[in-house]
Amino acid sequence: MPEVDAAWEEWLSSNVVRGCSPDSMIEAMVRSGFAADAASVAVHRTLGQNSAGAASVAAVAASAASAASAASAAVAAVASTASAASAATGAARAAVAPCTYQYDAVPVARGNVIRAYDRDVRVLMRCERPQVIVFADVLSPDECGEMIERSRHRLKRSTTVNPATGQEDVIRNRTSEGIWYQRGEDPFIERLDRRIASLMNSPVENGEGLQILHYDTTGEYRPHFDYFPPDQPGSAVHTAQGGQRVATLVVYLNDVADGGETIFPDAGMSVAAMQGGAVYFRYMNGQRQLDPLSLHGGAPVLAGDKWIMTKWVRERAYG
Ligand code: PD2
Ligand code: ZN
To answer: Name one GO molecular function term (predicted).
Structure first.
């Protein structure tokens, strides 16, 4: 069984502060090999530590509540009736709770087949809360193979943004190797950038460069949010250009023999990795609220390996 090391401690406390449910955190830990009782102890210990530091959490929640609309006002009213520590934790949770996030229209076109620049993409599944769409045929098998072969010899161990500093750290929450491509860096990449922008119905300029990730057997990416947490000092470095991330498309470049699904633990949903298919999810609405139900991860690869290509889309032009 794994240990609750520094990486797990950081994962636990950041997810508690963001308002993830205890059950979703326990479930994610059990998926990563913890016994259920050990996961439960770790989660509840972190929840206890967090209510001790509730004053700073309360400040974040209060500023979120005062900046937002009627829904947040109701949250603040509820919080004021509870005791100090639990009110603070409760307000922080409610500020990011699913019921306060307003689901406005997803920008992706309707229909079962979407013409995306130069290719017809099939829609397999749409979920409204969180906003998730599963596609088939985003890339052809040849395009998937070409992307893998171009990337295979250029991979470097993946990093994760340190929320305190904004720097990229190698930590055990993300056991994969990756490489970034510049937007439009050659005709092949440019075609994929345009196809994906058309599918996501967002300007090509708002997309970050494509990222390729490779996970070996046992590789995983523990549940996280793709947006930069607004309450963390390190996020400003990343949002200075292009603003917040609003949506993600993860394209699967190979069939994974076992495991490696993209999981949404708070929604009880998982998407299997199938070559050329993709999962789209949107987590920022037109009011700039962030959806806590978009918590997601890459489940451990149980057999074989896994290649994905990711496009993150910003609020405004990026780069
Ligand atoms: O590998 C995945 O399925 C995955 C899941 C969640 C990748 C990412 N997030 C990511 O790169 O952000
Ligand atoms: Zn992600």
So the answer is: iron ion binding
Same domain, 280 and 222: yes
Return the residue whose CA atom lies nearest to atom 1 of ligand 1. 298
129/173 same-domain check: yes
Is the distance from the beta carbon of residue 208 to the nearest atom of ligand 1 less than 6 Å?
no
Same domain, 87 and 122: no
Domain count, the chain: 2
With respect to residue 108, please indicate whether it lies within any of the assigned structural domains.
no
Domain-located, residue 1: no
Q: Which domain holds residue 32?
A: 6-93
Shared-domain flag, residues 34 and 137: no
| Burial (0-12, 13-18, 19+ Cβ within 10 Å), 157 | exposed
Task: Name the burial class of residue 11, with classes exposed (0-12), middle (13-18) and buried (19+) by CB atoms within 10 angstroms of its CB.
Answer: buried
- pLDDT tens string 262-307: 999 999 999 999 999 999 999 999 999 999 999 999 999 999 999 9
Confirm or reject: Cβ of 250 under 6 Å from ligand 1: yes
Q: Is the dihedral of CA 309, 312, 313, 319 positive or negative?
A: negative
Confidence of residue 33 (pLDDT cuts 50, 70, 90): confident
Per the domain annotation, does 319 fall within a domain?
A: no
Pocket residue to mutate for ligand 1, from 221, 251, 263, most atoms within 8 A of Cβ:
221
**What pLDDT does residue 250 have?**
98
Residue 296 CB–ligand 1 contact under 6 Å: yes
Q: How far is the CA of 226 from the centre of ligand 2 (A)?
A: 5
Q: Which residues contact 110 (CB under 8 A, 6 or more apart)?
A: none
